[in-house]
Amino acid sequence: MAAAPAPAAAAASRAARVGLLYDERMCAHATPDGEEHPENPERLRAIWRKLNAEGVASRCVVLKAKEAEDKYIASVHSNNHIKLMKEISSKKYDSSRNKIARKYNSIYFNKGSSESAVLAAGSVIEVAEKVAAGELCSAIALVRPPGHHAEHDEAMGFCLFNNVAVAANYLLNDRPDLGIKKILIVDWDVHHGNGTQKMFYNDPRVLFFSVHRFDYGSFYPAEGDASHCFIGEEAGKGYNINVPWEHGKCGDADYVAAWDHILLPVAEAFDPDIILVSAGFDAALGDPLGGCCITPNGYALLLTKLLGFAKGRIVMALEGGYNLRSIANSVFACAKVLLGDKFTFSSPEMQPFESTWRIIQAVRNELKTCWPVLSSKLPENLSLRVKPLPSELYASSDSEPDGEDVDELSGAVSSVNVIQFADDAISDHLSKMKLDEENLAVKTASSCSTVEHHPTDLVEVDKDGSVVLSKRISDFSLAWRSDLSRTHVWYASFGSNMWKPRFLCYIQGGKADGMSIPCCGSRDTSPPRGTMWKTVPHRLLFGRSSTPCWGTGGVAFLNPEINYNEKSYVCMYKITLEQFNDILFQENRLVLEDGKNGNVVYPDSPLIGLSEVEFMSTNKAIHLEPIKDSWYSNVLYLGDEDELPTLTMTCPSSDIERYKSGELPLSPPSKTYAATLIKGLVEGEQLDADGAANYINAAAARGL
Ligand code: Q9C
Ligand code: ZN
Fold this sequence. Notes:
Layout: H1 7-14, E1 18-21, H2 42-53, E2 61-63, H3 70-73, H4 79-87, H5 97-103, H6 113-132, E3 138-141, H7 163-174, E4 183-187, H8 194-199, E5 206-213, E6 240-245, H9 252-270, E7 274-279, H10 296-306, E8 314-318, H11 324-339, H12 354-367, H13 410-414, H14 424-432, E9 460-461, E10 467-469, H15 479-484, E11 488-493, H16 500-508, E12 530-536, E13 540-543, E14 546-547, E15 551-552, E16 555-558, E17 568-576, H17 577-587, E18 592-594, E19 599-601, H18 610-619, E20 621-623, E21 634-641, E22 644-650, H19 653-661, H20 671-683, H21 689-701
Parallel strand pairs: 1-2, 1-3, 3-8, 4-5, 4-7, 5-6, 7-8, 11-22
Antiparallel strand pairs: 9-10, 11-17, 12-17, 13-16, 14-15, 18-19, 20-21, 21-22
Bound molecules: N-{4-[(3-aminopropyl)amino]butyl}acetamide and zinc ion.
N-{4-[(3-aminopropyl)amino]butyl}acetamide (Q9C) binds near residues 149, 189, 220 and 398.
């Protein structure tokens, strides 16, 4: 009779075998001249030091990196891409390396990049194989460069090869002997795993789940395909799940809610053979790019909840994460979970955001036909947090453009255009801002002639000799103006204002090529502090039949409803809220011209003050009751850009209904108006001339 194993040995054999892959060679990839960069070698070293200092590394099976064979990388990347990434560090590219890097989005290369990239991909293969084979229970691969942004033929977002995708394909295609038929990829990096999504978009063997900041399409990588409407296609339909946060500040409670109400029920139904975690830690509290606040305990809890699936076969591969202390502490917490250490989770103190609940419902709704388990009714959530104010979102907006389809990110989105009179304070405020006769009272230059606001009164004489514009100063220096001059916003223009010279007419007065009447300009004529382009998830349409300025033909409007299948270019100008109001006045023909002395008179009160901005940050839009019959009476809040609200002006939803019914005409833009839009897009380097013309024509031709 065999002797029973000694207790210590028994304990050891029962203890989880956890792989921990670390290799200094993956620190070779660094910026070429030692410039600072968030994705730097110290990230790996900081984690490694912490795990050693805490005695965790010694409890793991420590592994060295291994190179990926080309044929495995080729399962997700083009041969050209592999060749270039493998040669980019060679002498041959010494003189062109930086230039090539600049062609990509957020990429640098040095002499160590090729080696690190091949090792990162190979290392994830290595640990995945060992976990799949049962040699290890689970593993953590401390790799860099990260991978989830890398696409078939493109490096991006600090990623050269898509390490996790390479490993998933390796298991599925090259190792049938290991019996891995279904893989769950959980991407909890704060950014959308765009590369991984694309690689398995029609593949039902891989369930890709990504939870990320989306910020209405403006958060990096700022593609609309990060929205929850992208659920996979063909056989892969239902096997792609995006949980797109609307803002930063999301933390343990929000992630746990997404786990409990989306990921875990689906994982249960999918029943994966192994779980690969695209484990970025840039949603961690303290991360300089992410602006979210998952605590180390939060990560430990999220990971613990995954251990119940796939017999606990979990492979974590590092992606992003840029605060050295945060990532070290977070990986440490995760390592302890895998090692089986007992954890006491203090239940998250914070409640999820109201938006989190709404997003979860929208995701479930989108996927419920694919995953019936998501059809169940969610518990009524009692206390939810409201969206943080823009000023609270210290979070870096690591942003750019754009969007795709929602019908019902219910709540806020469907309340576009709805002024909620339920809120007494707000309706009270709105009633105070009626633009009645009194507010439009004429204050002429003579009545304030002692105040020299504008030494630069413009007198322009047209070809025919008529004075087209003279003075622009006429009203008092009202308190609201100085208040609102201290707040900046991004004004997102989508029509002729995309052409900067035309936009500047609204600031400086006058007219640009193609305009038949001049603008009076804004009181504050300072040029915009910044210009940037984006795309927004709204339908562009051309409506109405003529304008005084452009003649016969429709002009541009955005459908105020968000639609993630749509993508409209906007040129954003960073201006003051005072200037935004002056543009709004001009767009709505609220600036009166006093024909006799040529003075112009602005309304006395702003349409969009600070409280309206705040109202919009929750309600997404404000229909300006006092000017409800004007064409641009609807101001939309499109999200934040470096902590400033992005606003635009368009028609109210009721007009959209009238366009649909035929009561209002949809009509193509006049030649000059279209040409102005095209100039804007071309000079703004968004499209070439043909592309821009196609874009305008397509929007004009399509019914609503
Ligand atoms: N406005 C990972 O976390 N930011 N990549 C570029 C441009 C790029 C993040 C900002 C962020 C990439 C793996
Ligand atoms: Zn990231």
